[in-house]
Design goal:
Blueprint (H helix, E strand, L loop, with lengths): L1 H17 L9 E4 L7 H4 L3 E3 L9 E2 L16 E5 L7 E9 L5 E4 L1 H7 L7 H18 L2 E3 L10 H24 L1 H7 L8 E2 L4 E2 L24 E2 L6 E2 L3 H7 L7 E3 L2
Parallel strand pairs: 1-6, 2-5
Antiparallel strand pairs: 2-6, 3-4, 4-5, 7-12, 8-9, 10-11
Helix pairs in contact: 3-7, 4-7, 5-6
Length: 257
Amino acid sequence: MRTLWIVIGSIMLAFVLGTGGSAAETFKPTIYSDGYSCPNNCDSHVVFHPSHNGTKYASLPSSTRLNPAKCKSGEPCRICFGDEDSSCLNVVYRGNGPDVFRFDFTPAFYEEYCSKPDLPKPLVDECKSFSRQYARLIENKIYCLNEPENQKCLAVIAAAEKRKNDDAILWKECLALGEKDFNKKYSSDITKQRKYDCAYEKKATGGPHGNDWSRLLPAACQSKAYVGKDGLDCCDANKMSLGGLGKECSPFLVPKS
């Protein structure tokens, strides 16, 4: 979802700078899962825009909110959704995210934290929303990433594996040559060119206009995970993957009967 959030984030940042920063008082939790681009095998963590690091909204737990120190990648970070201390939570920080005024968490984070008590209200609301969406999407359906051996799922999984395996040839070549030389080799075929460490298409084809964002490519998703229908994220068997990413993972739902 990286490229979509870059566009939105730039608009939001420009708006807030023009209004004195008042919108920075409330942060929104979001979810992302972009395969091999996701740090540390997409474990339970948060990423956020670098402009927030070292502020009262994101700081080392050993510092104070009045005198905040910057969070370090791979270490616990105190994030706060608002001005109140009750809106704060310590979570592993894995580096920069593409969007302002959002805390971007992995499905593994939601899987770990949603059952915990005393969460900040924005997280409580998001967890409930994901659970409701999961229940709605799974009604009378089989989520094939949970049941890949189910007879009704064999064709769906086989097609997803084929897309991944076909793309893996170009993915591996891009990694071996380096993005610049790979794109130079395929200069006459823009559809094969890549960016963001070979994980995304260079020519944007996503969105309703066909050029709104660059799609995440199939081989960029990890084992037993597959790119979603709009090329925004990777879908896997995690309940919060379907509940959080929603319709992005709908291609892996089939009727029970």
